[in-house]
TrEMBL record:
Chain ranges passing through the membrane: none
GO biological process, one term: glycosaminoglycan biosynthetic process
Protein task: Catalyzes the conversion of UDP-glucose into UDP-glucuronate, one of the precursors of teichuronic acid.
Source lineage: Bacteria, Pseudomonadati, Bacteroidota, Flavobacteriia, Flavobacteriales
Pathway this chain belongs to: Nucleotide-sugar biosynthesis; UDP-alpha-D-glucuronate biosynthesis; UDP-alpha-D-glucuronate from UDP-alpha-D-glucose: step 1/1
The protein's name: UDP-glucose 6-dehydrogenase
Residues in UDP-glucose/GDP-mannose dehydrogenase C-terminal domain copies: 333-448
Family affiliation: Belongs to the UDP-glucose/GDP-mannose dehydrogenase family.
Chain positions recorded as NAD(+) binding sites: 9-14, 34, 39, 90-94, 131-132, 165, 277-280, 347
Binding residues for substrate: 161-165, 221-225, 261, 268-274, 339-340, 443
Catalytic activity: UDP-alpha-D-glucose + 2 NAD(+) + H2O = UDP-alpha-D-glucuronate + 2 NADH + 3 H(+)
Enzyme class: oxidoreductase
InterPro entries, per the entry: 6-PGluconate_DH-like_C_sf, NAD(P)-bd_dom_sf, UDP-Glc/GDP-Man, UDP-Glc/GDP-Man_DH_C, UDP-Glc/GDP-Man_DH_C_sf, UDP-Glc/GDP-Man_DH_dimer, UDP-Glc/GDP-Man_DH_N, UDPglc_DH_euk
Record EC number: 1.1.1.22
Amino acid sequence: MIKSICCIGAGYVGGPTMAVIALKNPHIKVTVVDVNQDRINAWNSQDLDLLPIYEPGLADIVAKTRNVNLFFSTNVDEAIDQSDMIFISVNTPTKTYGIGKGMAADLKYIELCARQIARVATTDKIVVEKSTLPVRTASTIKSILKQSHNNVKFEILSNPEFLAEGTAITDLLNPDRVLIGGDYHTEDGKNAIAALSGIYLNWVTGDKIITTNIWSSELSKLTANAFLAQRIASVNAMSAICEVTEANVDEVAYAIGKDTRIGEKFLKASVGFGGSCFQKDILNLVYIAKSFGLNEVADYWEQVILMNNYQKKRFAQKVVQKMFNTVSGKKIVLLGWAFKKDTNDSRESAAIDIANYLIEEQAELHIYDPKVTAQQIFSDLERITGDNLQQLQEKIHVYNSAEAIFNNAHAIVILTEWDEFKTYNYIDIKNQMLEPAFIFDGRNILNPAEMHQIGFQYYGIGK
Ligand code: UDX
Ligand code: UDX
Ligand code: ADP
């Protein structure tokens, strides 16, 4: 019976997941640890608006559980030693150096965690991989844990998280499935799987818990993200065909989605997918395939990334082209910076690349996102443009609300599908803008007929 859980990594995955586990398992003490003191302070802040992650429903759960059975701390050693089960939920970014640069997952943080666990643990532990990892990472973790001198037994499980940002709490409360990979041929392995299942069974029905071997579990997570990203790349590829044939991509997506073999979800054409997972996981898959000499497999999946890059570039080029082939010195309003609505996360957001293209074309950008801070927007732009903050602040303006942003603008470019963008008074907005007033709707959230009626030059995706 698990009495105490520790989660290493208080990020987008670790934070919300542990909050829900704590809520549903009041008899278990859950401690989330991180080396980042600022992040832990933010998780502990009295003002719940200051939690480091914005997710609908998260603050309520934290309010109910924090300092009851959910704790946030930087004392990693103590939390490891006192727990029966340890979740590893640290980041695994794409490597930026050495072998596999730009492709392979950087496992340095995972390895550091494993070494720390081996060094500190004095009682038996179940170690759970929560981060998305390349296939066979568990064997790395196992061999490091074997080095422990404290005569401690470790059982390793893989339990990938399928939550999507913006819907993290509903996804956690009602998962499609819970995947647990473990050594089901051994008694110890079976017991570990049962212990982890027991935690989920407090709110998830048994039929949703899938048990596989550890390698299938690791690979399933990469595969799920690759398939999801591939659907978006596919529908975006069709959007390019729609734009030259008078077909409408939303109609095409609706029509094919009714085929139950295809299904309706994840067929929304867009300016390109973003987020911390899709690109990283596909690159990882490509790297794994290549390293086993499976070059055709690698090329197949790499095409998803290439198509996504093409979509972003195609959209930015369309903006320039429709505005008489120049945006130099023109005021362009970017609505949205997050990689999708209902999150403050901008990692790999399509907005970053599109802003960069427009900056190269010397556009004057005015940016507003309901949740992403100006500091974050500038730091994303520093990275992609190579300009420093001062240089950027001279030409780019970031707003706290959309109220004063449209005055004398040449164009509006919608990059994130925030609900509030649909509620604006576009008649008023049009009156504040220069003629001809352009809207480039990279998320197809506005009604084209209505926008034309108001007098906008309106362009969506795939229509
Ligand atoms: C297909 C479409 O399904 C149908 O909607 C369209 O009208 C015509 O083309 P069909 O070619 O008759 O129909 O057979 P289908 O069942 O789709 O199978 C096509 C091929 O894919 C077969 O060789 C089948 O063995 C293979 N297949 C199908 C797989 O290898 N794996 C699968 O999971 C499904
Ligand atoms: C994804 C997976 O959905 C989740 O299961 C996994 O655990 C982590 O990666 P996330 O990155 O949070 O989650 O967001 P998701 O909703 O999948 O969206 C990813 C990107 O695809 C966003 O930029 C989104 O705007 C875009 N998207 C999504 C589309 O362009 N069209 C769609 O139909 C769906
Ligand atoms: P994810 O989206 O996978 O949750 P994040 O980057 O949001 O990724 O969170 C990962 C967290 O893990 C970061 O807050 C980071 O500081 C933390 N972390 C990384 N390595 C360690 C470590 N060795 N010990 C404790 N925390 C770590």
